[in-house]
Design goal:
Radius of gyration: 13 Å
Strand content: 15-25%
Shape: globular
Number of domains: 1
CATH superfamily: Response regulator
Structural class: alpha/beta
Helix content: 40-55%
Order of helices and strands: EHEHEHEEH
CATH architecture: 3-Layer(aba) Sandwich
CATH class: Alpha Beta
Number of strands: 5
Amino acid sequence: MARVLCTGVDPVLMKTRQLILESAGHTVVRASDEREIRAVCREQKFDVAVIGQNISRKVKARVLDLVREHCPEARILELTLPYASKALEDADAWLEMPSDPEELAEAVNSLAVRKKIEGQSK
């Protein structure tokens, strides 16, 4: 399964996402600030990076830049709130939250498979 970087500002939501994704067979690492994102990206490669729905638009853009710079191989899934539009036009996929937990796992699976297929075609 996929190695997933899970970012966000709400530790409870991040832990919930981690449990959902781990129960689907993924390996999840959480990072809640720029320093942590840089550190974990130096240590590990990720297939997918999940950017939490409660992060401000400005911070989401910064997180996307950090992931693209330090984990360039990762596909980015932006989580959005129901009343908010997507903030990251450059993300690879979007998912409105809250959603069925299976939808989160399916979105990560889809991005991980896409990454693997695209990697094989190069």
